[in-house]
Amino acid sequence: MMQTQTPPNDPALEAMRKLSRRPNEKLDHIPGPNGLPLIGCSFDIIKDAPAFMQTEFKKHGPVFKVNGFGSTSVNFADVDAARMMLLNKDKNFSSELGWARVAGLLRTGILLRDFSDHRVHRRVLQQAFKRPVLAHYAEQLNQQLKRGIESWPKQDSFKFQHKLKSLLLDNAASLFMGAELGKESDALNKNFVALLNATVSLVRWEIPGTSWYQGRNGTRFLRAWLEKQIESRLSSDKSDFFTTLLKLSQDPESEMNLEEVIDHTVLLLFAAHDTTTSTISTIAAMLCEQPEWQETLREELLQLSGDALTLEEFNKLPLTDQFFNEALRRYPPIFVVLRRCISEFEYGGFRIPSNTQTNVNIHLLHHHPDYWTDPFKFDPDRFSAARAEHKKDMFQFLPFGGGAHKCLGINFAEIQTKILLFHLLRNYKIETAAGRKNRFNHLPMPLPKDGLPIKITALSR
Ligand code: HEM
Question: Measuring from atom 6 of ligand 1, which residue has the nearest CA?
Fold first, then answer.
């Protein structure tokens, strides 16, 4: 079985682990708020992270430090810094150490790996996202999402975000694990919510009642749920992602052991439904706020014949694509991409000491006045072929990150979102109560504060 320890011949990884527990050097020479004793700026960030980041960006420019959630990080908000950190040519930025504090409950999941070790595991996981596999997912998603939407209440208002989240979790379990959740769905959902909330926990000790404690219990529950299936999966003829990796782990030459398979599966299920719940909720909220765009997308989707959206038809939906991109720009589900530098470096006239938490601030890049016109306006046309604002620089629009850790589920997310819109908008009108205003929570992910109460009405065709 594969060693989970650092390969001894990888000097960058060796250096990184030696550093990992040393406290940050002082960052007094870098501008930015220290906030209150102990809690730093945590409450301001929780209250309204985008507003807080914008204020600091305006005061200090694209490099500033923030003290919050028990540590000080340096935020970077221009394309050159994003390019340097994500392409990571000198192997100076560690994802494992960057995410450890926030997402350490995901243990050895792919995001918490670096360099040659990360490459080995990523190559295996990529098998689940090859085009023929995606075509199979698309077929399944057409059936499952259509059925799911049909089961939602009609005429009566309901909280869209909650129904959507459990539908997408059911999808993820079915596609990546070949599991029909049934009654287990609610319990799993609850534990994934606990895991997500733990990412922004102020206290990171196992004290009962804290969100970290609940997140820890959540991961234990999810791991136990997967572990109890190992035996039956190994003797089954299933061919889903989870079973395939489990069987692979039994080969003495294998690159993964059982523990790692469990960690990868928890991370994948987590990534596969929480991020898309955020994006599709944002899209639905904006389609209610801008009914003319709802009609435009409906017309575009109705031009397609057939009862299912196939992979070949995706390039026939330029306006749906613009809307999808604008939702990801304005409300990126992953607000910051977290890294920690191994060696000291200089950027923008500042010396950044070794072992500093360094964040690529996706929210600030997506609202940078040099790259976007009227950046706070929700304006899908900025992505049109005529305007193509996103094409100024490869690193200005990074909802899915970039470089070695670029989102593995990028195509899956697009397929899931567009198939859902295909079945929803072709058949139903969606609206919120008159006078309702869109207000979002931004952490841990952007979501409508009120759960998005929505009414869907069947269209006569
Ligand atoms: C709108 C939806 C999504 C967004 C905005 C999103 C965003 C991201 C971002 C920004 C990263 C990079 C993090 C970093 O570099 O530190 C990432 C990584 C990842 N995403 Fe997504 N994601 C989405 C959906 C999905 C889906 C549906 C899946 C799985 C089916 C998925 C699986 C992953 C995995 C496994 C990684 C880690 C890749 C690695 O470390 O090599 N994501 N995602």
Answer: 400
